[in-house]
Amino acid sequence: MKIMLDAGHGYNTPGKRSPDGMSEYDFNRAVASHAKALLETYKDVTVYFAHSDTRDVTLQERTDAANHLQVNAYVAIHANASGSGTTWNDASGIETYVMPSRPKEATELAQKIQNYLVTMTELKNRGVKTADFHVLRETHMTAVLCECGFMTNKTEDALLRTDPYREKCAEAIVKGIAEQYKLVKLAPFR
Q1: What is the DSSP code (8-state) at residue 10?
Q2: Domain tally for the chain?
Q3: CB 103 within 8 A of CB 70
Q4: Mind listing the pLDDT tens digit for each residue in 101-149?
Q5: Cβ-contact 95, 127 below 8 angstroms
Q6: Would you tell me the crossing angle of helices 163-181 and 104-121 to the nearest 10 degrees?
Q7: Which domain covers residue 159, as residue numbers?
Q8: The domain that contains 70 carries what CATH number?
């Protein structure tokens, strides 16, 4: 099983910050790193990153890499924003996206990840939605995009900055993937 994790946006992407300056990429990359470590505790799982800490990787490069590697699943990790993104507001919750024309498997994976994210974070359930995002449209495999809370909501922004919340989001995403693909844990070393 090959999985590509995409910490949405990039290291130097302009914008994509909370009103008080937290970079969305900081959250996304931390969750992706935690998720990779957790996924590597399962048998026959190889994890790739679509992003880089040294340069901004274009959306086309990300989807081209996933298609070239023929990964089985592509999971983009994001933090949401409402309005212009420059002012605080009360938009809140978790939502997960799929491309409307994708097979049932994409919606099933999105629903599992969404359910775990909502249950584990206890944030509002905004549901599984459809969107024509590049990473969902241009990938040739099951692809989902998770929005793990709003950077424009002061309460959720505070959560997005903490390691425990980031780890919880990673664990929820991995639980959804593991359930969907019936992944089996590696035997512990003795």
Answers
A1: -
A2: 1
A3: no
A4: 888 999 999 999 999 999 999 999 999 999 999 999 999 999 999 999 9
A5: yes
A6: 150
A7: 2-181
A8: 3.40.630.40
